[in-house]
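Record Vacuolar-sorting protein SNF8, 220 aa.
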Amino acid sequence: LAKQFETFRDNLESFAEKHKNEIKKDIAFRRQFQEMCATVGVDPLASSKGFWSQALGVGDFYYELTVQIVEVCVATSSQNGGLISLDELLLRVRKARGKSRSAQDVSHDDILRAIKKLRILGDGFTVIEPANNQGRILIQSIPGELSMDHTAILNSLQTRSSFTVEQLREQFKWSDERIKTAIDFMIKEGLLWIDNNGRNIEYYFPGLFTAQRVTAGESV
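=>
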């Protein structure tokens, strides 16, 4: 079995060298190649000096992508508090890369793989998965871990970007103190905006507000 895996690994290297341009430029081809690598426990991004990054150039692709992700997150953090949807992040990265086909051939999967590599820098980047894998994926690009309560609130806002205390109380059956603790933390971190219209105070996630615009097809 070990011999078979070694043979497959050698064949994978030959395949990578032969098709390196397709792997770098074609989304579907790159995804298929990543799955092939995972089969034999190869991580093309594990080392910037190894065979895979030198012969294939895939390391350069993801290095460039991680830089662009960081630039987008830094540029938008004052607007969204460091919380951005995967859809909006992808759209902004594509815009930053230019209009050529190869520049636009970046997928959600590429973004998530690049963010996974950014985690070695610390807790600055976190992927927030939706409940039951249904809904939008969010990227948190500021240090600090969100609690289960914060994540529950985010997951409850799949079709809107704001909420009231009354809505949380009704949906989660939480005490007012628990709700206040969650809200105060997110306001302090810059994740929430407050809209006091005189009747009910409404809390907005600016990152989700722009995500709704992206979903609706508006430019960012």
